[in-house]
Design goal:
By secondary structure, the protein is mainly alpha-helical. Among the domains are: 88-201, HUPs (Rossmann fold), CATH 3.40.50.620; 290-341; 348-441, Orthogonal Bundle (Arc Repressor Mutant, subunit A). It is built from 18 helices and eleven strands. The chain has helices at residues 19-34, 53-65, 89-101, 155-165, 181-190, 221-226, 231-239, 254-260, 275-288, 291-298, 312-322, 332-336, 348-354, 360-372, 379-393, 398-409, 417-424, 426-441; strands at residues 6-9, 38-41, 105-108, 111-114, 120-125, 129-134, 145-147, 170-174, 197-201, 204-205, 271-272. Strand 8, helix 5 (181-190) and strand 9 form a beta-alpha-beta unit. The chain is elongated, with a radius of gyration of 30 Å. It starts with 5 loop residues before the first strand and ends with a helix.
């Protein structure tokens, strides 16, 4: 067994990257980076009926989006490849022949089974502790199949062979695999190879305690990509599903997590998934992004909108106004749409409250006249003009804010009114106020 830390993430490409799989990949990646070791990605694609190139791409894209770079694996190569199980047939045959020569295999209805050693197998797990598995009873622990009648391989066998060949030092995987571990240890012993250290991380459950399935909200990493989450926020949230710093902080830069992460500190209890906390974290990261990075990540979500392809000088001032108001990039198009079109709609409730009131049209026209006299179109000057108009009209300044906001944006809430009007510009703001006043007067 190598003294270097070598860990692996070995997903089956069956259509999507589950949040549980992503968390497993992340814990492997964190441990490798913490120990200055190697993170291996291998694809367990022996199930030809369920696997596809498209599904492989989904996994690769998901890991790249999360910022989990692998040191060996698809597109990277490495000393112990190939990294697709479908390309390792000769290697599996060699180990199969070794087991057969050692008397460890027998045929049973066309399938090859491994003859259990019928012992008590001890798993010294780095998270779960010492666990004994009594495999002596054939009725409760029948001999496992390692090769089907059609010649295809069973997971247990190829998993162990790959861990041997790729010099894997630590196997970090979900607790649902814990019951497989004694079978794997039997194979290592029969092959005369030292086993890696095992660390089984807690399961991810829904809020109600049920096991998270692929149909549950937030289960697929693709949903975060399509939903416009900040990648760093999702990565941060995944670290909290079974691990946390001693001080209880929730927003952590990944460089700090790498320094702090250790398998002995992984929680033994199952983790509970909370999509609301992930959304909150996305908002926290969103507000701290540079404007350039924010604009870059927004770009795919602006395709097909009036904001698509706009030069930075026009787009970035608008994005700056909403950056701390949104939690995902998918919210941005709706949040900024009224800046780039005169065909914006009015929220019914806001319009009723702000505009369908006696004297609303006259007050808006008075504001427009005041704004026409503002020489320095700045937030401070706009605010001063509004307050002065309120005094002239004998009303509270606050009573003019909502009508003005609805007139220029159609919304009852949003960014700072005065900064919003500064970005819209004097001409646009006044025109919209006049047009709204005229429509209400009519």
């Amino acid at each position: 067994m190598t003294s270097e830390v070598r860990v692996r993430f070995a997903p089956s490409p069956t259509g999507y990257l589950h949040v549980g799989g992503a968390r497993t990949a992340l814990f492997n990646w964190l441990y490798a980076r913490h120990c200055k070791g190697t993170f291996v990605l291998r694809i367990e694609d022996t199930d030809k009926a369920r696997n596809s190139k498209e599904a492989v791409q989904v996994i690769l894209d998901g890991l790249r989006w999360l910022g989990m770079d692998w040191d060996e694996g698809p597109s990277m190569g490495g000393e112990y490849g190939p990294y697709f199980q479908s390309e390792r047939e000769n290697i599996y045959q060699r180990y199969f022949d070794q087991l057969e020569a050692g008397g460890h295999l027998y045929l049973d209805n066309g399938a090859w089974r491994f003859r259990s050693l019928r012992e008590v197998v001890v798993v010294d797990d780095m998270i779960c502790g010492r666990i004994e598995f009594d495999l002596s009873n054939h009725e409760t622990h029948p001999d496992m199949t390692i090769r089907r009648p059609d010649g295809s391989w069973i997971f247990h066998f190829v998993n162990v062979v790959d861990d041997i060949e790729m010099r894997i030092s630590h196997v970090i995987r979900g607790e649902d695999h814990l019951s497989n571990t004694p079978k794997h240890l039997e194979l290592f012993k029969a092959l005369g190879k030292p086993a890696p250290r095992y660390a089984h991380i807690p399961l991810i459950l829904n809020k109600d305690g049920s096991k998270m399935s692929k149909r549950d909200e937030g289960a697929s990493i693709t949903s975060y990509i399509d939903g416009g989450f900040v990648p760093e926020a999702v990565k941060n949230y995944l670290t909290l599903l079974g691990w946390s710093p001693k001080d209880g902080r929730e927003k952590l830069e990944i460089e700090e997590v790498v320094q702090l992460f250790d398998l002995e500190k992984v929680n033994r209890k199952n983790a509970h998934f909370d999509i609301d906390k992930c959304v909150w974290l996305s908002g926290q990261y969103m507000s701290s992004l540079t404007l350039e990075r924010f604009a870059e990540l927004c770009s795919p979500f602006l395709v097909g909108t009036d904001a698509e392809g706009l030069e930075a000088a026009k787009l970035q001032p608008v994005l700056a106004l909403v950056k701390e108001k949104v939690k995902t990039f998918a919210e941005v198009p709706a949040a900024i749409s009224y800046f780039f079109t005169e065909d914006y709609s009015f929220e019914p409730e806001a319009s009723e409250k702000a505009l369908n009131q006696p004297g609303a049209s006259a007050r808006l026209n008075a504001l427009a006249t005041a704004f026409e006299k503002v020489a320095d179109w700045s937030p401070e000057s706009i605010e001063a003009a509004l307050k002065a108009t309120a005094v002239e009209l004998g009303v509270k300044a606050g009573s003019l804010v909502l009508p003005t906001r609805v007139a220029v944006s159609g919304r009852g809430s949003g960014p700072s009114l005065y900064h919003m009007m500064e970005v819209l510009g004097r001409e646009c703001s006044i025109r919209r106020i006049r047009q709204t006043a005229d429509s209400k007067a009519a």
